[in-house]
TrEMBL record:
Residues marked Transition state stabilizer (site): 74
Keyword list, A-Z: Cytoplasm, Decarboxylase, Lyase, Porphyrin biosynthesis
Assembly information from the UniProt record: Homodimer.
Species whose genome carries this gene: Paracoccus tegillarcae
EC number(s) reported in the record: 4.1.1.37
The protein, known as: Uroporphyrinogen decarboxylase
Protein purpose: Catalyzes the decarboxylation of four acetate groups of uroporphyrinogen-III to yield coproporphyrinogen-III.
Native organism taxonomy: Bacteria, Pseudomonadati, Pseudomonadota, Alphaproteobacteria, Rhodobacterales
Reaction catalysis annotation: uroporphyrinogen III + 4 H(+) = coproporphyrinogen III + 4 CO2
Family statement drawn from the similarity comment of this UniProt entry: Belongs to the uroporphyrinogen decarboxylase family.
UniProt GO cellular component terms: cytosol
Amino acid sequence: MMTKLLLRALAGETLPTPPIWMMRQAGRYLPEYRATRAKAGDFLSLCYNPELAAEVTLQPIRRFGFDAAILFADILLVPQALGADLWFVTGEGPRLSTITDAAGVDALKPAETVHETLAPIYETVRILSRELPRDTTLIGFAGAPWTVATYMVAGRGTPDQGPAHAFKDADRAAFTALIQRITEATILYLSAQIDAGAEVVKLFDSWAGSLKGQDFDDFALAPTAQIIAALKERHPEVPIIAFPRQAGERYIEFAKATGADAVALDNSVDADWAAAHVQPGGCVQGNLDPRHMVTGGDDLVREAQHITRTFAKGPHIFNLGHGITPDADPDNVARMIDAVRSV
Ligand SMILES: Cc1c2[nH]c(c1CCC(=O)O)Cc1[nH]c(c(CCC(=O)O)c1C)Cc1[nH]c(c(CCC(=O)O)c1C)Cc1[nH]c(c(C)c1CCC(=O)O)C2
């Protein structure tokens, strides 16, 4: 019998208390994370050190008893494995060598070679599948192709993903080839995470909301559906969570058309609307505003319980609507968990 709460919710079961985990649950708001990171050196050294990456994955599980652990890694390791230069500027974020034309896409390494770079990540997964508590589900992940492409084209995070839109509009065929290369690499990467012990995988499309109309179909919906179909063929038993952040009304269609077992709702989505229009199609995850982890108080308890009650009539995984921020107070995380479990 399936006992892990997260797997039961993903199988479509309505539970008396939803499973809980948090995006970016291993991160700078935790003093123990900052200590391990200092030991590793920089962020990428931490990602590629299986023992230390497993340690930071386990830290929030020990402290809070979440129902799921998410592999500690980053969505930008796939571009690096495809040949992009990648580094992180402290206090600013990621930097990559840029790809702005067809020649740049052609120069990328073949998808089949990504394992050479990503092998340490599979080792982290193997360590975690041995060391996690019996009731904790291990989630693997990757970025969705559009979001990964926005960083590969611009060479950094951008407020409006302007460079990726410009590339797509200037040379749709070359941009499609870039999306396709990332899609193939992502299928191989997630499949290897599953072989190493990941029990669920999640696709982060953080910038899906900047795609409209046909572009949303071609670059958010279709690549996600392609990745899910390929993974389901190889690993039919492994549930998949998709996060088309800020997809708005298109969440409804995204949930139906991609084959995802659950969609993660960002915090711009109204919970009552999603309970009426998205949850009837299957499990939903979300969607407390991460600012409550900074501000705390009665608002935190009220809002966490409102979300829990609103989604109580169907399968639900409690989570934030985006990652917890470095200025969050760990005590507020404990308060959130108590609030959800006492509904
Ligand atoms: C867009 C994106 C990235 N990475 C990720 C996304 C998609 C989700 C989202 O929208 O937030 C996903 C991600 N990044 C990280 C994880 C690990 C698992 C987890 O705890 O959620 C996951 C799932 C670790 C990380 N990834 C990063 C950190 C902070 C690094 C540090 O320790 O300095 C962590 C813990 C760095 C990172 N990585 C990325 C950026 C833009 C940054 C810099 C911004 C920041 O510093 O928060 C790319």
